[in-house]
From TrEMBL:
Keywords: ATP-binding, Cytochrome c-type biogenesis, Membrane, Nucleotide-binding, Translocase, Transport
GO molecular function: ATP binding; ATP hydrolysis activity; transmembrane transporter activity
SMART domains for the chain: AAA
InterPro entries listed in its UniProt record: AAA+_ATPase, ABC_transporter-like_ATP-bd, ABC_transptr_haem_export_CcmA, P-loop_NTPase
Organism listed in the record: Momordica charantia
Name listed for the protein in its UniProt record: ABC transporter I family member 1
Domain ABC transporter: 11-228
NCBIfam families recorded: ccmA
BP terms from Gene Ontology: cytochrome complex assembly
Length: 229
């Protein structure tokens, strides 16, 4: 009888610490996320949720520890190139092209991904089917968020990093968000959400970021503000 080796987590945070503006946000965090898993980052505004997401996306390095994808450190150049192709990033900056139609805004990203056929179904699922030919500049804030989510669906990458995805959504929009997150996880996808608004995500791990306080002014700060040349 042979014993199976335990499956490696898809993402592993090993003793990870994170800094912002010379202030520590998190210290020695250990989290393992397998396929179909979800992690919710909560905390007040300014607690560092976006900073933490950016670190997971590889835009910045941990101040200590390591982030492993399939057992490999994402900060290694060869690994990062492959890792970033797994990521779907949704931020508060929507990157919507105002003079493109709703459909074009999704198809443009889908074509860049080398895919086709997913744009219109994604738009319809997000309740924007009747607006597909409208210019994006005509959309409300909630509709723009739905457009972002439609783009997320059409690109269809396995790891979703969502920064305040429920902002500007009405109740129906939040339910749609919860639905697509659940469906993505059923397919083995991973979802990591930063939010200060409760979102229903079944069996999600919760990581609460403590509130941050203004850091003390350092000698460098005082010299920068002085008139000494």
């Amino acid at each position: 009888m042979s014993l199976r080796r335990p499956q490696l987590p898809r993402l592993l945070l090993n003793q990870v610490s994170c800094m912002r503006n010379a202030q520590q946000i998190l210290r020695n965090v250990n989290v393992s996320i397998h396929d179909g898993g979800a992690l919710v980052l909560t905390g007040t505004n300014g607690s560092g949720k976006t900073t933490f997401l950016r670190m997971l996306a590889g835009f910045s390095r941990p101040s200590a520890g390591e982030i492993l994808w399939n057992g490999h450190d994402i900060t290694e150049s060869g690994v990062f190139h492959q890792y970033k192709l797994q990521l779907n990033w949704l931020s508060l900056k929507d990157a919507i092209k105002e003079n493109f139609t709703v459909l074009d805004n999704v198809q443009w990203f889908e074509v860049l991904e080398g895919k086709q056929g997913g744009s219109m179904p994604a738009i319809e699922l997000m309740g924007l089917g009747k607006l597909a030919k409208e210019k994006a500049r005509m959309l409300s804030m909630g509709q723009r968020k739905r457009l972002q989510l439609a783009r997320l669906l059409a690109i269809d990458r396995p790891i979703w990093l969502l920064d305040e995805p429920s902002v500007a959504l009405d109740d129906d929009g939040v339910k749609l968000l919860e639905y697509i997150v659940a469906e993505h996880r059923k397919k083995g996808g991973i979802v990591i959400v930063a939010t200060h608004i409760p979102i229903e995500i079944e069996d999600a791990m919760i990581l609460r970021l403590p509130p941050r306080f203004p850091r003390r002014m350092t000698l460098v700060d005082m010299l920068d503000r002085s008139d000494i040349s």
